[in-house]
Amino acid sequence: MTGAQALRNSLDLAQLCDRLGYVRYWVAEHHNMPAIASSAPDIMIGQIAAVTQNMRIGSGGVMLPNHAPLMVAERFKVLEALFPGRIDLGLGRAPGTDPATSYALRRRQGINEEDDFLERFQELMLLETRGFPAGHPFHNVKAMPADVPLPPIYLLGSSDYSAQLAGQIGAAFAFAHHFATFPADEAMKLYRDSFKPSISHKVPLAILGTQVMVADTDEEAERLALTFDLNTVRRAKGEMKPLASPEEAAAFDYTPVDRARIAQGRNRIAVGSPKTVKEKLSALIDSTKADELMVTSMIFDHTARKRSYELLAQAFSD
User: Fold this and answer.
1) Among 52, 100, 149, 200, which is disulfide-ready with 153 (CB 3.0 to 4.6 Å)?
2) 167 closest CA partner among 150, 192, 199
3) Farthest CA pair distance, the chain
4) Would you give the distance in Å from CA 212 to the centre of its chain?
């Protein structure tokens, strides 16, 4: 579909999920990727929050290397002011794109080749706490509106380092199990073991992100998952193409290496009928001790995607 239709579908799906009782709805920041229209999560968060009533709406996440911390603070304070108690600020350590696009995003900022996430995060926190000492150029800088707090902060990650860092800075942690190679149970334990209370979170909160595809039958869910399989193969080859239909994916000429990659990818995805998926996800929750499960569904057809979220909600409300 077009990018414009994809964005409108995100609003439609959010309204459905709000009615179904989902707790959060997050949107990502990616640039120069043909399969992803979400390049400005703060704008989408405002639009989604405006057409929903109950869910928390957040960023999964804002890629902090791309932005001045003051800009992030002010945009999310505006969102918090408009939708108090319903906004989440998820932060990512990566640029969310390829090196050339990353350069285009950051070239006016004074690019540092080193990982400067922690420096930017500390600046964000000092702006919030007014912690810059007297004489510092930012001592009198206020992130506006100054009387509105930053929303709760979450660190996104897919590695052992990100798990420990989330704990050390006192953020909630959202682990990307749907594409991570590091074991989810180990990441969650590392996060909890390293957690230190902060102004954002007094106790640890661990969210496990995973890929879920539910249909009325196991057979139909497997058909829908063919889209995911082909996407897995293409991404491994550096091909960032739009999602393929199940029919296109079924007709693709896979090599033995492709099939091995698909099998490996299927280890991180729950596919099936409501009963099948609930069993798989319950086992995952038990092994990781996740406080929340966050699902993404790489389903080609919007109607089938909505049905997947309906069936998942029904499965866990029984």
Assistant:
1) 200
2) 192
3) 66
4) 14
CB 215 within 8 A of CB 270: no
Which 3 state secondary structure label does DSSP give 269? strand
Residues 6+ apart with CB under 8 A from 75: 42
Residues 6+ apart with CB under 8 A from 246: 223, 224, 226, 227, 300
Looking at residue 275, its amino acid is K
CB 167 within 8 A of CB 157: no
How do residues 255-288 score in pLDDT, each as one tens digit?
999 999 999 989 889 999 999 999 999 999 999 9
pTM confidence score: 0.92
- How far apart are alpha carbons 59 and 66 in whole angstroms? 14
Identify the H or E element spanning 72: helix 69-82
Q: How far apart are CA 296 and CA 269, in angstroms?
A: 10
The DSSP letter of residue 244 is: P
Beta bridge pairs of residue 59: 27
Q: How many CA atoms lie within 13 A of 32 on its CB side?
A: 11
Secondary structure element (H or E) that encloses residue 309, with its range: helix 302-317
Phi, psi angles (nearest 5°) of residue 182: -75, 140
> Any bridge partners for residue 272, and if so which?
214
